[in-house]
């Protein structure tokens, strides 16, 4: 039986990644959302939520009926306290939209951690979904470029903490900073390239979880991987092309070239799920078993799945983490950011006090 999957994109970043998923799922044509059939094996409902009408209008591949505008000026301007209030006020209409289909097996909430709307809606939304239903809820959380400033950094730390307290099943990290190709790549090309990478992995993951072939990875394996470690996880991918051996593709998917977040999996991974797709003749089953066994020895339990398709070998690796040096660094930077913002606020209050010097006085001419 096909899985019923709910994909929610919140805020600008979440909306855009959702749109890219719809683009790839419908085949990419401008009108394909009306005439095409989604390329998912699963039944997938996509919902884009935003406080900014303009961000929603920008979407090209997500049907109008799958968008929900929450009226609140033009976004919440990276202010998470305001965002949380807007969520509470509007959660009935959000749930009405999500409950148009009433049964799901799996849900992903996609958003940035640095902005306002996505980062403040995601934790309470995850909590409400978990309290109300018993399906798996995972977040796909996009970390900011570190140069984006103190507010985005402090938002990131608090968002991750709230997500981790929300009761959801895992936090899948995508790091803009790590994925940018040097300082020369312009930001819009970086966004669209990163969004494509995430979408490609999501489509592959859904296929991996919903295949009826012999040696498959399923929702239970995915849960076992995500239940271990410190809640954080990331996803690796490699398209082997014609000349790469499957074993090398598996290794590459788990290397910095394949992962969405900077992680040394030999030190930091807890468990993994590796799914290989490709033509039957190109899949050396003995070689695959050898490398998966070796990985299991090195990092912990590794589930493996093989899906026979008519394309070149491709590998998807889902990895849960025990620890993360990079995340420690993000939190250190966030602490500095909070200190800087605190000092700025104190300075502003001192400046406000200046006016008290002329309280009760009128200008004399
Ligand atoms: N990968 C990726 N990151 C994005 C994209 N758009 C924005 N971001 C990142 O998201 C963060 C800003 O958050 P947004 O998602 O724009 O903010 P929002 O949730 O809409 O919240 P407000 O605009 O404050 O109401 C920054 O770290 C950006 O680098 C995108 O299309 N792709």
UniProtKB/TrEMBL annotation:
GO BP annotations listed? cell division
PANTHER family to which the protein is assigned, alphabetical: CELL DIVISION PROTEIN FTSZ-RELATED, TUBULIN-LIKE PROTEIN CETZ
Tell me what organism the protein belongs to. Methanohalarchaeum thermophilum
List the protein's name. Answer: Cell division GTPase FtsZ3
Q: Name one GO cellular component term.
A: cytoplasm
- The domain of life is Archaea
Q: Which InterPro entries match?
A: FtsZ/CetZ (IPR045061), Tub_FtsZ_C (IPR008280), Tubulin/FtsZ_GTPase_sf (IPR036525), Tubulin_FtsZ_GTPase (IPR003008)
Which Pfam family, any one of them, does this sequence belong to? Tubulin
């Amino acid at each position: 039986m096909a899985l019923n999957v709910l994909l929610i994109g919140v805020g600008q970043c979440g909306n855009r990644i959702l749109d890219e998923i719809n683009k790839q799922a419908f085949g990419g044509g401008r009108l394909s959302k009306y005439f095409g059939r989604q390329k998912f094996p699963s039944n997938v409902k996509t919902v884009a939520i935003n406080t900014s009408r303009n961000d929603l209008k920008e979407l090209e591949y997500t049907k109008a009926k799958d968008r929900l505008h929450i009226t609140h000026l033009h976004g919440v301007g990276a202010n998470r306290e305001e965002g949380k209030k807007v969520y509470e006020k509007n959660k009935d209409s959000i749930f009405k939209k999500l409950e148009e289909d009433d049964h799901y097996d799996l849900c992903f909430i996609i958003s940035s951690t640095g902005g306002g709307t996505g980062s403040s809606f995601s934790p309470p939304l995850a909590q409400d979904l978990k309290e109300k239903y018993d399906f798996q809820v995972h977040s796909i959380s996009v970390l900011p470029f570190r140069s984006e400033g103190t507010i985005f950094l402090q938002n990131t730390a608090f968002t991750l903490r709230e997500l981790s307290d929300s009761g959801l099943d895992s936090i899948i990290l995508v790091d803009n900073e790590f994925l940018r190709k040097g300082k020369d790549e312009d930001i819009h090309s970086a966004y669209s390239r990163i969004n494509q990478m995430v979408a490609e992995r999501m489509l592959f993951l859904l296929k991996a979880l919903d295949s009826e072939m012999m040696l498959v990875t399923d929702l239970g394996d995915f849960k076992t991987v995500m239940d271990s470690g410190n809640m954080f996880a990331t996803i690796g991918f490699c398209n082997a092309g014609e000349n790469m051996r499957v074993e090398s593709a598996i290794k590459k998917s788990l290397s910095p070239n394949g992962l969405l977040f900077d992680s040394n999996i030999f030190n930091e991974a807890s468990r993994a799920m590796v799914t290989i797709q490709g033509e039957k003749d190109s899949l050396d089953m003995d070689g695959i078993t050898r490398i998966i066994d070796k990985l299991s020895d090195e990092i912990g339990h590794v589930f493996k799945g093989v899906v026979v398709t008519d394309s070149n070998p491709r590998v998807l690796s889902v990895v849960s983490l025990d620890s993360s040096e990079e995340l420690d660094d993000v939190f250190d930077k966030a602490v500095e950011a909070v200190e800087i913002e605190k000092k700025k606020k104190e300075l502003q209050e001192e400046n406000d006090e200046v006016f008290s010097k002329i309280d009760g006085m009128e200008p004399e001419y």
